[in-house]
Amino acid sequence: MDFWREIFMALSRNKLRTFLTGFAISWGIFILIVLLAAGNGIMNGVSDQFSDQSTNVYMIYSGETSKPFKGHGTNRSIMFNDKDIRFLENEVRNVGQVSPRIYQNGFATINDKSCSVFMSGVRPVFKDINNVKMVEGRFINELDEKNREKVIVIDENLRDKLFDEGVSPLGQFVFISGIAYKVIGVCEVYEFSSGGNDYVPFSTLKAITRQTKYWMLNFTVNGLNSKEDNEAFTEYLRTQLAHFHEFDPDDTSAIYIRSRQEEYLQTMKILNTLQLFIWIIGFAMLISGIVGVSNIMRITVKERTNEIGIRKALGAKSRSILASIVTESMIITTIFGYIGMWLGMVAAEVGGNVLSKVQEGKEISLNIVPSIDIRIVLLATALLIVCGVLAGFFPARNAVKIKPIEAMNYR
């Protein structure tokens, strides 16, 4: 009891100094937790967006040549056709499944309701490439594509415009530009799409519109796991298509190649750098708190040097004196460290709830909600406590080494 009474008397004698020291510690761990929660929120939000689509996907867009090549002039349009599809599937390495995409505008009508519609003609693999999420029914399958079936997968927007609430559209026929399409499924609206969320078989729309040239091709790739692999494949693909369509391989405006996986890798690299920067700032705040504790304990020990000399002269053991000073440091660090920890967790939770409500109902939601890894929080708090103990230990150890007579005469 005397041991603990002595410690709390020492803390209470310097209330302001104790509070300011503790505040520095609390503030350091509070900022660390808030920064880490924000960083995790950004990481989770970006990862969530990429999880909505396959990352091993390439998209090729048509363009116009800007350089003459083998007798061909400039401003020549490079469009894709069925030969390109077979070429990609059979002759280009690393290519998996290919899905061209064509479009048609029209008006959809059923009974007394009608609205404009922007249809996409795609192959069944398109669902996996773009992770089309079904609400009910099914997506286009191989039989639909092979038999040129007049079926359609509509999105939730078109369903709500054409059908009454509670009425399932499955099995019903929607007339688009005078042609009846049987509804086989309903899918979610892809937030970042510029249009074309209503899907029909590629072969069906191709036969109806008589389109033989396409401005975009989607395909999956295999075995590309790094930025270097993707850059090498992009260069290889451009060279192959340049040979196939007879344009200069260095003419980057002839075709445009976009790698979703490369975008993902670049984005994650930026986010990892951001997270490292957050850790550096957070630990800098922690270190400032620890330095504050160390300085305060050094001043405390200096002020108590005469007291230490008297206690040693009266027979107090060095380890007893050392233990009281170290315990004092540990109490300050532990109490204020856990206060900062809980305040940081509360702030992150409140911030997450606010962001969730702000994003609720938004047409485009990034799902950037702060999250906390409790293991990292506890580890950081434990580290802070250990550092606080060490901050009190070293000045106290130096003080108890002084001879009693020197300590009593210390000024």
Secondary-structure topology with pairs:
Blueprint: H1 2-13, H2 15-51, E1 57-64, E2 77-78, H3 82-91, E3 95-100, E4 102-110, E5 113-122, H4 126-130, E6 134-137, H5 142-147, E7 151-155, H6 156-162, E8 173-176, E9 179-187, E10 198-201, H7 202-209, E11 216-221, H8 227-245, E12 255-259, H9 260-303, H10 305-313, H11 318-359, H12 374-400, H13 404-408
Parallel strand pairs: 5-10, 7-9
Antiparallel strand pairs: 1-2, 1-11, 1-12, 3-11, 4-5, 4-8, 6-9, 8-9
Helix pairs in contact: 1-11, 2-9, 2-11, 9-12, 11-12
Name the features.
single chain, alpha+beta, 12 strands, seven-stranded mixed sheet, 411 residues
Give a quick precis of the structure.
The chain is of the alpha+beta class.
What is the alpha-carbon Rg in Å? 34 Å
Strand fraction: 15-25%
Helix content: 55-70%
What is the oligomeric state here? Answer: single chain
Shape: elongated
Report the sheet with the most strands, covering strand number, pairing sense and barrel closure: 7 strands, mixed
* Helix and strand run: HHEEHEEEHEHEHEEEHEHEHHHHH
Total helical segments: 13
Total count of strands = 12
Structural class: alpha+beta
Q: How far apart, in Å, are the first and last alpha carbons?
A: 30 Å
* pLDDT < 50 runs, ≥5 residues: none
Mean of residue pLDDT values: 80
Molecular structure report:
The structure is a single chain. This protein is an alpha+beta fold. Helices cover 56% and strands 18% of the residues. The protein has 13 helices and twelve strands. Strands 4, 5, 6, 7, 8, 9 and 10 form a seven-stranded mixed sheet that branches.
